[in-house]
Amino acid sequence: MKRILLAIALGLLGTAAVARSAAPEAVFKLEPYRKTVALRASVAGHPGLFVFDSAGGITLLAPAFAKTIGCTPWGRLSGFQMTGNRLDAPRCDNVRISLDGHPFSAPVTAVIDPAPLMAKDAAPVAGSIALDLFAGRTITIDLVHRQLIVETPASLRERVAKAQPLPLLLSRELQGHALAASVGVPTAQGTVWFELDTGNGGTVLVSQPYAALFGLDPDAKGEQTADFDVAPGLHARGRAFTPSMIIDGNLGMPFLHDKIVTLDLTQGRLWIQPAEPAAQ
């Protein structure tokens, strides 16, 4: 009888071990911000609301917030928006950003007034956080459950155990200070790279030279409807435009809103999985 009870106990312990999930390094709450998402963070003890812009390239500080944290902007960073417009901005260096008590470091940030880049009815923000803040880490963006997760090697293995990796292109503009991620979408002509953009609240953008490959009219000036596969089981559908851009394409919230995106920003790996609906 004792042997039977011991066997049952060991079996239950084994089941518990299998069921136990590996804990990630950190889980941060994403807040709705108009059609995008934002994070609460603090710098030098000063709290602020920051847009989370996965295609922003570099973390930004609003001039007023830079002054509040004691930074005097200096020098100049020069880059290009996806439409080709040049953008110049001064910088603040070695900015220590705390997310729910977890320290992160932005070696270089751009100081830009976000107001002209945002809708007039948008709440003021202290800046925006981009992928550069998580360089060297693996993160998961779960927009259904509004979470930004910093993975450990063990939690990453569990998360992607049954997922297939997708082609990933990491780009580092601004002399290597910026960091953005694009997924490779195969076409009859070759791979077209779409930026994954949580800062794009409402559209799918396909650069004019590639529009016809995705069933879109390259000469149309107004809105169209995108309807194409990014990968097996991953569909892009929604409002689309075909501007002339210096990137191939951009996938915003119409594609990302119901996905779980895992980005290994060290080894350059990507997984995108459909998310289970959030509990009501």
Number of helices: 4
Poorly predicted ranges: 1-10, 12-19
Gyration radius, rounded: 21 Å
What is the number of strand segments?
20
Structural class: mainly beta
Distance from N terminus to C terminus (CA atoms, Å) equals 46 Å
- Beta content comes to 35-45%
In words, what does this structure look like?
With 280 residues, the protein is mainly beta. The protein has 2 domains: 26-149, Acid Proteases (Cathepsin D, subunit A, domain 1), CATH 2.40.70.10; 160-274, Cathepsin D, subunit A, domain 1, CATH 2.40.70. Helices cover 12% and strands 42% of the residues. It contains 4 helices and 20 strands. It has helices at 2-19, 63-68, 153-159, 253-256, and strands at 26-29, 31-33, 36-43, 46-52, 60-61, 74-80, 86-99, 102-111, 127-129, 138-142, 147-150, 168-171, 180-186, 191-196, 204-206, 224-231, 234-241, 249-251, 259-264, 269-274. The strands form 3 sheets. It has a 7-stranded mixed β-sheet. Strands 3-4-9-5-8-7 form a 6-stranded mixed β-barrel. A hairpin with a 5-residue loop joins strand 6 (74-80) and strand 7.
